[in-house]
Amino acid sequence: MNSMEKRAVIIGGGASGMIAAATAASRGIETVLLEKNEKLGKKIYITGKGRCNITNQCDIEDIIENTPGNASFLYSALYSFDNNRLRELLRELGVPTKVERGGRVFPVSDKSSDVIKALNKYMNRHNASVRLKKEVSGIRVSGGSVEGICTSDGDFISASSVVIATGGLSYPSTGSTGDGYRWAKKLGHTITPLSPSLVPLETREGWVKELQGLALKNIRVKALTTQGKSIREEFGELLFTHFGVSGPVILTISRFICDWIKDGVKLRIDLKPSLSHEKLDARMLRDFSESPNKQAASCLDGLLPKSLAGVIITLSGIDVQKKINQITREERQRFINILKGLELNVTGLRPFSEAVVTAGGVSTGEVDPGTMESKLVKGLMFAGEVLDIDALTGGFNLQIAFSTGYVAGMSCR
Length: 413
What we know:
The chain has 2 domains: 7-195 and 355-411, FAD/NAD(P)-binding domain; 200-350, Helicase, Ruva Protein, domain 3. 30% of the residues lie in helices and 23% in strands. It has 12 helices and 19 strands. It has helices spanning 15-26, 42-46, 60-65, 75-80, 83-92, 112-125, 179-186, 248-257, 277-290, 306-315, 329-340, 396-411, and strands at residues 7-11, 30-35, 55-56, 97-99, 104-107, 129-132, 136-142, 145-151, 156-158, 161-164, 195-197, 201-203, 215-225, 230-240, 244-246, 265-270, 342-349, 357-359, 380-382. The strands form 5 sheets. Strands 12-15-14-13-16-17 form a 6-stranded antiparallel beta barrel. Strands 6-2-1-10-19 form a 5-stranded parallel sheet, with helices on one face. Helix 1 links the parallel strand 1 and strand 2. Helix 1 runs parallel beside helix 6 (112-125) and helix 1 runs parallel beside helix 12.
């Protein structure tokens, strides 16, 4: 490539890659986006259950607070391209947005495909070239600067800037298979330990299978070490599965227990957080007095789902055939103690194929936060999930992808 010639190659056609390509091209730089899949935005398509939770309409400090993985690295990117600019851009591209519970932002149409079309339109507007089914095999560097990329079919594309926007390891069916980590490591970058995050949890107890499909709202879950140290506490919705537990509170907790799993983690679930032990006892006594000759399980329908009541009665050591008027005060207290502290032993995280995002990645200490450029290789930028940055659910991870992608595109030269 002639020394006066500028070309940016963007690897990866997800949120960060598409906005990086459009941004670079808008600055008059010849831009080529390479995507190994047959279409763009595969992961965008499945986000928000197909509705695409684009971002969160909160202030930057709240985004930072909801980013447990290296949040301070993001200040420059978020102030360069925040959630308001993202919503305005999408509106200009024909995708108006709306704000729902918890500040979550979705397209008015509730179609993630509309977001993908808009980003494609944005790239086309600025004449960014998109090549699908084009797999990159490596990045060529000379004298500490990028020279271009090599493809698996033998092509070489020269470039003055290369943006790695290949995603992490979560949902590998969308193309996130860790390519970016391998290239970065080969070029001297540190890859911090990778772990599935925002992912369901596997538990030891066999009785969870009896509750498969049962969703509980307004419960409180606390994650603790086996020594009793509190790791994280969440309030909200939980779902029992055949392998353990899932649901919003569990996905959030999963992010904070990664480092503790090998030593053992317990979940303590308060099924009735709004009621004290005393109030629960009074409630049960009242219910029991109305049907003293009924069996225990049949008298708890107003308090718990039938399947869950049966499990807790068994865990309490109460004979399910026992009549209400035969239940002792000690048995009743054991039942209440389990209601307020149902315990599960976590045996592991579910695989990357079920994780919303990857924790870990290219070390942010080796990347300039103001440009997303590598401190080790001139002209090499990183954007999105490939970086060691991850956030909680609520649109934060996509905002990070858009913000870092924008900054990487602005830094191409």
